[in-house]
Write a structure and sequence with these properties.
Blueprint (H helix, E strand, L loop, with lengths): L1 H4 L2 H14 L3 H15 L4 H19 L5 H7 L1 H24 L4 H12 L2 H12 L3 H28 L4 H11 L3 H11 L1 H15 L2 H16 L6 H14 L4 H23 L4 H7 L2 H22 L11
Membrane topology: Multi-pass membrane protein
Subcellular location: Cell membrane
InterPro entries: UPF0324_pro (IPR018383)
Amino acid sequence: MQNLLSNFYLWVLVAIIISVFSKSPAVALCVGAAISMTLGNPVRKKTGNLAKKILQLAIVMLGFGLQINVVLKVGYASIWITMISISATMFVGYILGKLFSVERDLSILLSSGTAICGGSAIAAMSPAIGASEMHTAVAMAVVFLLNGLALIIFPHVGHMLNMSQNDFGLWSALAIHDTSSVVGAASIYGMQALAVGTTVKLTRALWILPLAFAGAKINNSENKAKFPWFLLFFLLAAMLRSYMPAYDDYFMQMAFIGKRMMVFTLFLIGAGLTVSELKKIGMKPLVMSVLLWVIVSVVSLTVILEGWAHFSMPMF
């Protein structure tokens, strides 16, 4: 069995198969982790290096799914809301990371995933700060777990509190990690909630770029890491879709390919997880993330219900 698992191309083949038949990055991550932790992965360094390269390309491809001009025009009012939310989340995450003695890079990844857009933010921040494969995998796993809980919990809380469509959409965009989970929870609640949630979430996702740039600058000053130039191509991809509407169908296809590449990558990232390494990390990162998520959810919900933050838009 070990001889079979030592075949690097076998891991690549399995990753391709999963990316074709599974739409869920969380499933891919779990499958990769399950195989690695039960059977082992003798070529963990090779799969990890490939994952990092494909991850950067996937982020660029996902940029074609953003329309910067639409987000800035329709969601202008949400820019300040998201900026305050992201800044506060990163600050609280920093404090909690220190409080629970979570390693610096892992704390940054967990805080970034909570503050901006889950897996995509973690994927962008990881190479920017020079995070290890293990820290990236753990951060991804924790965020995807909380995403699943959000899909179940948020709609029930919204109905229990009789939240309006606009308010629920805004709350989902501010408090749920991944865009896919925001879309899922908001669509359960209603079409107007979906319209608001999607627009605000896309505006929030744009902050990946400046946050990753900041992370890269700080990291360069300490470790002389390479600047994440792929983030510029991510921005260029979003701009191309915004200003070349005639090719929108092609851009959406490229974004779709980017999503499949993300599934491919997360399988390989999961394949880098080992039981021994997970034991070294412990429960502290999970406790930190859950507590940070609860704080963000409760505070943003309170702000919205008290009328301190309101955002509405016409139906798409």
